[in-house]
Amino acid sequence: MSQMQPFSTGTDAGAPPAGPCVLVIFGATGDLTKRKLIPALYNLLKGGLLPKEFAVVGLGATEIDTPHFRDRIAAEMQKFATVPVEPAEWDWLAQRIYYLAGDFDSPPLYDRLRELLPKVDSECGTQGNYLFYLATNPSLFCAVVQRLGAAGLVDQNNGQWRRVIIEKPFGHDLESARKLNLDIRKVLEEKQIYRIDHYLGKETVQNLMVFRFGNGIFEPIWNRRYIDHIQITVSEVVGVEQRGRYYEEAGALRDMVANHIFQLLALATMEPPISFDADAVRDEKAKVLRAIQPMSSEEVLAKAVRGQYGPGVLDGQTLPGYRSEFQVSPNSPVETFVALKLSIDNWRWAEVPFYIRAGKRMPKHSTEIAVQFKRAPFQLFRGTHVGRLGSNRLIIRIQPDEGISLQFGAKIPGSSVRIGPVAMDFDYAEYFGNKPNTGYETMLYDSMQGDLTLFNRFDGVEISWSVLTPILDVWSVLPARNFPNYAAGSWGPREAEELMARDGRKWREQE
Ligand code: BG6
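A: This is the predicted complex of the input protein with 6-O-phosphono-beta-D-glucopyranose.
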């Protein structure tokens, strides 16, 4: 496709720096902080989006002091920064980083935090605005919020704001998510709660809304009259790595579907919101998620497939099975792959199936939404090769190789009518240039700015769990007997292919 002159957006051209604040990280010695949060803050600084009046207070169980903590994260930045680290900029940020060691579930830490924060305010000009980031074990979310409340740290007075970012997983089923919502909403107002899903920080995910609602040509065909079905694939090459303990409690359905995939599904299928105001967008997302038909027990058996990887070979490398991974039970019943057929019960999507799959240890790292359109009537081309032509497809590549491609048929030059599949391709990096980021920049910036649009509201979380809980219930009473049922490095169990084949369809082959 011929493209307009590529242009660079620069670094968030036009966006102002966030307002003064302190980011208080619970879990500051953990993985998320070193891999994502600190590199993301550095990227915000480089992009001119971090306020001058800014500070970080890290909280962790490890008994170290602030200078040691600064040294430690400086060393980690060498490994995890997504752009070269410039000493002057890094020093500026490092000088604004503080550390407190203590137990997240006992009052003394909160007393010390309450003493430290005003000092930070006066040293860094942060004006009493605090953003608490709960990057802890999920079992502590509720306790931390309650203790923050008891210490008076989330009271918003004199124009000072207090917000809390809560990492995933938010609950492990409908009941626990409801309880967590109920408990934290006794302490916080809904607009102080930022339930994060880092998929919504990905440019291509945000672009879904622009693609659908900022262009006039797609919306008229975005419905059951033109779309045959939609597939969402999130395939990862990695296994569970060092996260066996967490994953044994979670499994693929909770880890990927309850949040990331449902967010993709909601953005791909929701009605146009009346504005880009946070609640207008979240209303529409909740509405469409509510229209997903929960499965009966019989339907779970027919429409939900689970898999677990066994040993296998990928790129010549022999890989262990899930049951031999670190901190995983040798007869674990936990799924590392899931495929579902879902229906959305509303006017726009009646009769359109949605096939979603997510798995670890697959042959390719790829997240994409594939929209398959209905075939054209082909009487016109009878007697030619056109009958064999595939349907038109729109592929939205979320990662890697972010972009969008539209596949259609074109006449192969020559005297007979032969049609070949071609694609119009938009490649993010080619068009806008590469902008290395961690995926957390937007989420951090938006929360500092008080923009809740990309964060989950309590009802969205509960609706997702109410769709998935019937599946979890059936799976827990009927543990899979055939695990492991796919080899590491393959596209998942045979049953996932059969799920599609029964409907005369196939998963899109990934090139
Ligand atoms: C996390 C899951 O939320 O998302 C991980 O817990 C998964 O299991 C990860 O690997 C995938 O995120 P990304 O951004 O690498 O696609």
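The first helix runs from residue 31 to 46. The pocket of 6-O-phosphono-beta-D-glucopyranose is lined by residues 168, 236, 255, 367, 439 (CB under 6 Å).
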